[in-house]
């Protein structure tokens, strides 16, 4: 529970949740990762494309309904993406990408719902793979805002995630993981 200010035990629990999530993604344990996402109403996973704009431009750099890398309110859509990443016949993942997700700058805020927590974090993602005779590697960095909700079973789950990449052009042709 969170009254007005999150206590140290809650902060550590949420940090450990995010660190475990990062490890599951690194190890490509996508089905276990999907279990960390909530079911039903209110679920949302949104990673917009950032448009580089003049500061005086009234159009924001990103907004709902415009370009997005991923925008879904359906966990099943993420499950389809995960299944494609796991498929041995997927040439985009053969040889497989080596992943590393680093999560830092975690801030926890209480919400009006004592079982829901707004969590801000920074994620750094490093990927490497061997293609032919060359080693290809790249990095992504993003800010995330999550809404974590404690279920009836007492476990935390991701109810909403917004991922704001700090790139206007992806350093890779395709994003082959989740952030």
From TrEMBL:
One BP term from GO: 3-phenylpropionate catabolic process
Matches recorded under InterPro entries: NTF2-like_dom_sf, Rng_hydr_dOase-bsu
Pfam families for this protein: Ring_hydroxyl_B
Keywords: Dioxygenase, Oxidoreductase
One annotated GO molecular function: dioxygenase activity
Transferase as UniProt keyword: no
Highest taxon, organism lineage: Bacteria
SUPFAM superfamilies reported in the protein's UniProt record: NTF2-like
Residues annotated as transmembrane: none
UniProt-listed Gene3D superfamilies: 3.10.450.50
PANTHER family referenced in this protein's UniProt entry, alphabetically: 3-PHENYLPROPIONATE_CINNAMIC ACID DIOXYGENASE SUBUNIT BETA, BLR3401 PROTEIN
Membership in a protein family: Belongs to the bacterial ring-hydroxylating dioxygenase beta subunit family.
Listed name of the protein: 3-phenylpropionate dioxygenase
